[in-house]
Design goal:
The chain is mainly α. The chain has 3 domains: 34 residues, no CATH class; 197 residues, no CATH class; 233 residues, no CATH class. Helix content is 59%, strand content 3%. The protein has a 3-stranded antiparallel sheet with strand order 3-4-5. A hairpin with a 4-residue loop joins strand 1 and strand 2. Helix 3 crosses helix 7. It starts with 13 loop residues before the first strand and ends with a helix.
Length: 487
């Protein structure tokens, strides 16, 4: 999918083992020299007064009006390098009056009036002297201001690029921006841009040049920007936006029944192994555990839930671990017994801690039961605790070992974000985007659980099929049974 986007592939990223970071090619090359700022959040608000002119008059007339204003500003206010509203507000009173008078000579003051919602008479008296119109209602000004913010927020849009072009025009008119002789072709772009329509093929070259130049000549006024977004955000309502994913309606009971029949058949035909074989215990117990996870997902409609992803991750880990154990049993005959001991050791660690902390009797941790399991086959004083990964390899290394790296990359790593409660997962399922440009599309906690997730059940079925196909190679399951799960 990255082929059609201006993004780098994973193998182009640079691994810094010392820092434990996989850096983008751009960040790796520039490091601390790269100080990006955002058009939408940090620059667009400064030029919103020009955006109001463009929106009202349209591209052709809006450019013409803006050019007249900016040219006169370049001649009358030489200290003004950029048409930033914060810079205008910082001018002396007489210079501010000159700026506002120039604007009013070329456009109707009602066009700029919506900004008086944010910049009131108490703090910006000269601005309000020129642009506050009592006859214009708050609602009409707010609507126009919100529409303009939304219109010019997307940094790569045609409208935003036009506004970004105007942002550099003051430097062009004042002679503060010049092109070296060898950049003559680049200079022509800025001559031809206003008269070239966006559907013209040449604009595919013009637009990036405009955006690049505009972003290079800017100093962020943090106080102005913070005040702007706080003011507009506090007086407009949120618009929570969610994606609705449909639940997979397919009846999966036949598939579940087929899996159960296979396990029942293997138990019936391998009774001796069930009594004495650690390998049999682990294989059958692990697959039953995976099937029980799927049963809970299906029976409790958890396919579209956070817990559905937790369950999918566990099924993947079970599958990879079983393949790993089987692959290495020839070289490590005790591997199945060691795996059992490893799991009991993990339970023992919790048990010892619980005895010291005396957990609440209402807790889901049932100390007597865990005590019984830990001491079921061996007195706990003979059970060591292994604090490392089993067999000293994490699940990622094991997935590579058994040829399931793609399964790890595509699903396990993703679902682990849910298991660990990392921000990517939280952002996807626990917060809603606010579909209001005035709020910078910020995140709203989904406290009433309106956002669901894409269904995991079909992925679980694929995983279980792979597990049972693997199982069939060990215990010879009749085709009649396998045929039922492969329908």
């Amino acid at each position: 999918m990255a082929e059609n986007k201006n993004v780098s592939r994973l193998n182009a990223h640079v691994l810094n083992k010392k820092k434990g970071i996989v850096a983008t090619p751009l960040n790796n090359a520039l490091g601390n020299l790269l100080q990006p700022n955002s058009w939408t959040k940090e620059r667009m608000p400064e030029y919103l007064w020009l955006g109001l002119i463009l929106k009202y008059y349209g591209r052709k007339d809006g450019f013409a009006k803006s050019f007249q204003i900016l040219y006169e500003l370049s001649q009358n206010i030489p200290s003004l390098s950029h048409p930033r509203l914060s810079a205008i507000f910082n001018l002396a009173d007489e210079e501010q009056k000159t700026v506002y008078a120039i604007i009013c000579r070329h456009v109707d003051k009602k066009i700029i009036s919506p900004l008086t919602i944010l910049y009131r008479n108490s703090t910006h008296p000269k601005f309000n002297e020129y642009f506050f119109i009592p006859q214009l209602s708050f609602e009409s000004r707010m609507t126009l201001l919100s529409e303009t913010i939304k219109m010019f927020s997307p940094s790569q849009s045609f409208e935003a690029t036009d506004l970004r072009f105007l942002a550099i025009c003051l430097m062009l008119f004042s002679g503060k921006l010049n092109f070296a002789p060898h950049l003559a072709e680049e200079a022509k772009i800025f001559e031809k841009y206003p008269e070239t329509e966006h559907d013209d093929e040449r604009m595919r070259k013009y637009r990036p040049s405009v955006r690049s130049l505009e972003s290079m000549h800017f100093i962020v006024d943090n106080q102005f920007i913070t005040t702007f977004w706080k003011a507009i955000g506090m007086i407009t309502p949120c618009k929570p936006w969610r994606i609705k994913f449909e639940n997979n309606p397919e009846d999966l009971n036949e598939f579940i029944s087929a899996c159960q029949k296979i396990l029942e058949y293997i138990l019936a035909t391998n009774k001796e192994k069930a009594l004495t074989d650690d390998k049999f215990d682990i294989i059958m117990g692990s697959i039953t555990y995976a099937l029980k996870i799927f049963l809970e997902i299906n029976n409790n409609s958890l396919g579209n839930s956070i817990l559905g992803r937790h369950g999918t991750r566990s099924i993947i880990e079970i599958y990879i671990m079983l393949k790993y154990l089987l692959k290495h049993e020839a070289e490590k005959p005790e591997i199945w017994k060691e795996y059992k001991a490893y799991g009991i050791g993990k339970y023992k660690l919790v048990l010892l801690k619980a005895r010291e902390t005396e957990p609440d009797t209402t807790s889901h941790f049932t100390l007597p039961l865990i005590d019984c399991i830990v001491n079921e086959h061996k007195f706990e004083e003979f059970t060591d605790i292994d604090l490392k990964y089993f067999d000293k390899q994490g699940i990622r290394e094991k997935s590579i070992d058994v040829g399931e790296k793609q399964l790890y990359d595509l699903f396990y790593d993703y679902d682990s974000n849910y298991a660990h409660g990392l921000w990517g997962a939280i952002r996807e399922c626990a917060v809603l985007a606010c579909d209001n440009a005035n709020h910078q599309f910020y995140c709203i906690p989904d406290i009433y659980a309106r956002q669901n997730l894409s269904d995991v059940k079909l992925d679980c079925i694929k995983l279980l099929k792979r597990i049972f196909i693997w199982l069939a190679d060990i215990y010879q399951i009749p085709d009649a049974f396998m045929g039922r799960i492969n329908k």
